[in-house]
Amino acid sequence: MFRTLDDTIMVAGQVNPADIAEAAALGVTFVINNRPDEEQPGQPAGSEIEAAAKKAGLGYAAIPITHAGFSMNQVEAMRAALEAAPGKVLAFCRSGTRSTLVWALARATMGDAPDALAAKAEAAGYDLSPIRASLDTLAAQG
Q1: What CATH number did the domain enclosing 14 receive?
Q2: How many CA atoms lie within 13 A of 67 on its CB side?
Q3: Which domain range does residue 51 map to?
Q4: What are phi and psi of 11, to 5 degrees?
């Protein structure tokens, strides 16, 4: 269920409150919800995930991203959450793809090399080619 991008972050598709305890047992200290509420019938509300995270002693941030795409505000919010997290992060959305993409964009603004980010994503089963030009631009600015 959880896919490791590197030693600081895992991504996943939709999680349930019960999954948060499992994430904590794996060393997660902070949860980032990249899924908008009510995107799909039957998905748990962000408030349920947040409550489970707090119950497990984990930090929580909601940075919802729709299928319409990313804004720099979301990339900056992701960067701030990654920088503030005291340890390993779990980011989730419907499939893990949006979480992986916004993670890569945020890490590019932090100076990570696009090739390294692409390799990490590919090893976890994700493709950064749709955002490669943006990664290169952000990395050059960082």
Answers
A1: 3.90.190.10
A2: 4
A3: 3-141
A4: -125, 160
CA torsion 54-90-92-51 (nearest 10°) is 0
| Average confidence (pLDDT) per 10 residues, the chain, 142 residues | 96 97 97 96 96 98 92 97 97 97 97 98 98 95 79
Dihedral-angle region of residue 126 (phi above 0 means left; psi in -120 to 50 means alpha; beta otherwise): beta
What does the alpha-carbon distance between residue 53 and residue 117 come to, in Å, rounded to a whole number? 27
* Structural contact between residues 136 and 124, judged by C-beta atoms closer than 8 angstroms: no
Torsion angle (degrees, nearest 10) of CA 39, 93, 18, 4: 170
Q: How far apart are CA 124 and CA 20, in angstroms?
A: 20
Place of tokens 């992060």: 89
Q: How many domains does the chain contain in total? A: 1
* Distinct helix (H) and strand (E) counts, the chain: 6, 5
d(CA 126, CA 22): 23
